Amino acid sequence: MSSSDPSTRAGLPNAESRGDTAQAWPFDAAQGARGLLFIVSAPSGTGKTTLVERLVQGLPNLHMSRSYTSRPARAGEQDGVDYNFISRERFDAMVRDGAFLEWADVFGNCYGTSAAETEAVLARGEDVVLVIDVQGARQVRSRGIETVGIFVLPPSAAILEQRLRGRSKDSEEQIRQRLDVACREINEVAQYEYAVVNDELETAVSRIGAIVLAERARVKVMRGAAEKIIETFRRQEARRQGG
Ligand code: 5GP
């Protein structure tokens, strides 16, 4: 993704941002091809993390952002791999310092996306996927940052409940809470550009992959590459005229 026009890519600034993250996004309109910023949201238990992990394995120049969280690591989770696990004090300090592009309290724990880390990837022309909840997605959009939002839907409420019970990560109370939140979150699908049903993992990965490829093929994204090709035609024409 190094061939696009910088002025049309993700991440341009907007002064309208939350007070607590006001300095979080370093926009100096740096010239150079920028990457695209994808957001994937879904109710808990929909399988979005697995989907996106598979997606980034299969597509070059696409990176899944690693969030910071004050939640303790679950069994099998690794610091610096699944999340950057930090204390609540450190999380609050990062909020105060404006280090987050967005952050949210989800099920009583805080989660946030580093502005600097996201910007560094976009600035080198590679694409980023944020796997964040609907509140975080709203914050990014409200800052006027150009994003491509993909909402992953479970096939039905009953299947989501089955999946939440099947993964046996949560207590009965947590399952009820996740279902309540899912019931509210699902209405946010209208705020996203794309909706993908996660009925079967590989099919859903292909659907999201198709979205990424289509977004990369937009003329405004391809303008730089197209102009270079057009230039070869101009030069050929000039040679023909000259000879
Ligand atoms: P979990 O604790 O199950 O890993 O994640 C709980 C929820 O937090 C999920 O919906 C997940 O998408 C969301 N989440 C993870 N990282 C971030 C983040 O950086 N920002 C926001 N807003 N939500 C996040």
Explain what you see.
This protein has helices at 48-58, 88-96, 115-123, 134-142, 157-166, 172-185, 201-216, 219-242; strands spanning 37-41, 62-64, 68-69, 84-85, 100-106, 109-114, 127-131, 148-153, 194-197. The protein is built from eight helices and nine strands. Strand 5 (100-106) and strand 6 (109-114) form a beta hairpin. It is of the alpha/beta class and 243 residues long. Helices cover 42% and strands 16% of the residues. The strands form two sheets. It has a five-stranded parallel β-sheet with strand order 2-7-1-8-9, with helices on both faces. A four-stranded mixed β-sheet has the order 4-3-6-5. The model is unreliable at 1-32 (pLDDT under 50). Guanosine-5'-monophosphate binds next to strand 5, strand 6 and helix 4. Guanosine-5'-monophosphate (5GP) binds at residues 44, 67, 71, 102-104, 106, 111-113, 131-133, 135-136.
Biggest sheet statistics: 5 strands, parallel
- Spatial order of strands in the largest sheet: 2-7-1-8-9
Distance between the termini: 37 Å
> Per DSSP, what share of the residues sits in E-state strands of 2 or more residues?
15-25%
The poorly predicted ranges are 1-32
Mean residue pLDDT: 87
Query: What is the CATH-assigned architecture?
Result: 3-Layer(aba) Sandwich
Q: What is the CATH third-level topology name? A: Rossmann fold
What is the count of DSSP helices, taking H or I runs of 4+ residues? 8
Question: How are helices and strands ordered from N to C?
Answer: EHEEEHEEHEHEHHEHH
The ligands bound in this entry are:
guanosine-5'-monophosphate
Number of domains: 1
Shape: globular
CATH C-level class is Alpha Beta
List how many beta strands DSSP finds: 9
The share of residues in helices is 40-55%
CATH superfamily label: P-loop containing nucleotide triphosphate hydrolases
If you compute it from the alpha carbons, what radius of gyration comes out, rounded to the nearest whole angstrom? 20 Å
The structure class reads alpha/beta
